[in-house]
Amino acid sequence: MNKTITPRLIPALIAIAFSGSAAAAGFQLLEQNSSGLGNAYAGSAAVADNASTIFFNPAGMTQLQKIEVSGGLTAVGTSFKFSDQGSSAGAFNGTGNGGDGGGWGFIPNGYLSWGLTKDLYVGVGVGAPFGLKTEYDERWVGAAQSREFDVKTYNINPSIAYRVNNFVSLGAGLNLQRLEATYKRATAISVNGSISPLKLTLDDDSWGWNIGALFNLSPKTKLGISYRSEVEYKTNGKIEITGPAAANSSDAKADITLPDVFVLSVTHKLSDRIELLGDVARTGWSSIPKVDVIRASATLSGLQIGSIAQTLDTDFKDTWRFALGANYKLNDEWMLKGGIAYDQTPVKGASTRLVSLPDNDRTWFSVGAQWKPSKTLTLDAGATYLYVKDASIDNNQGTVAAPLRGRVTGTYEDSAWIFGAQASMSF
To answer: Which of 3.30.70.360, 3.30.465.10, 3.40.50.1370, 2.40.160.60 would CATH assign to domain 37-426?
Structure first.
C-alpha cells in the first residue's frame, strides 16, 4: 500500500516474530514494557526504573545500576463486532456481520543497559512499536473491502545516554526497523458465482531515531521529554489473485511514513509511600493521509506498471493521549499501581473508518503490582481494560460502478484487554 496503514519494524538480526493487535489508538503499540502497564503508561518518559527506559526515554539509563537487563511479554486481546445497518456488498454477494474481527496477539520485549562510566551509558532494546490484526469471516458483507489485515513490526533500538550533571541527563538512539504486512480481501468480480480472493504482501527495512532528556527538578520530582521520529518505508511485494480475476496479479509497491511521537512526562513523590505520575503525548498520524497500492509490473490482463491497484482513504489526523497514574509502596518488597488514560483515535469519522481498522477513542483503566524479592530482581505485572466508544462506519467503495467493493454501513462495538509480565535484573 502506498503510504499504507499496513505497518502500528527490522531486524533480520533476530529470529523473533512480533505480532500484535493494536491497543493504543490507531495501530500503535505502547506495550513496550509491563512495569508501565499498571499505570496506563503515565510518567513513561520520566520513571526510568528499569532498562525499558531505552524505548520511552534513553536519557533515563543514567538513573540505573551499572548493568541492567529487562524482558517481558504482553498479551493483547481485541474485540471488533460489527452490526450491519444497510450495507451493500457491490458485485460481491457476501452476507453477515463477519464475526468478531479481533483476537489475541503477543508482544515480547527485551532491553540491556550498561554503564561505561559513572555518567556514560549505552544500551539496546528490542520491541514492536506498531502492530495490528483484524480478521473476518470469508464471505461477510464487507469481504470486498477487507477479510484479513495483519501488520507485524520489529524494532532494534541501540541507544546512548550522558549525565550532564546531577540535574540533567540526555539520551539518543537509532531505530533499525522492519515492516511486514498482509492484506486479504475478495475482489469485486464474480463469474458464475465464483470469487477471486486477493492477497497483498508488502515488506521493507528502514530506520529512524529517538532522543530524550530527563530533569531531576528536586529529590521528589522528575520531568522527562522524549521524541521518536517518523519512519519512511518504500515497501515491495505482490498482489496475488486466484480464481476468475487471476490475470490481474502483479508485483506491488507502496510508500508509508509511520508517525512521530512526542511525550512529556512527570513523576512526583508525595511521600515515601505515594508517587503520582502524569503523561501527555502527541502522535503525528497525519503522516498517513491515504494509502495507495501501486502495480510494479504489468498484468496478463493488460493493466500497466504504475497504475493504482487500490487506494485506502485513511485521512488520519494527529492525536493526543493523556494519562494519570499513582503508585503505593506497601513495604520494601511490594508496590501497587493504578492508572487511567484517554487516547484519541486518528480516524476522523464514519466515511473514512476502515473495516481493517475500526478504531475509535478509548479510555484505559489499569492496575498492576511490583514485587522485589531481592535487591537485584524486580518482577512486574499489569492489566488494563480498554473501553472504546462505539464506532459508526459508512465507508462507500463503490456499489454501482468499478471497483464495486461495496458500502459498509453500521456500527462497531470495540473493546480490549491487556495483560503483561516483566522481569528486571541489575548487576
So the answer is: 2.40.160.60
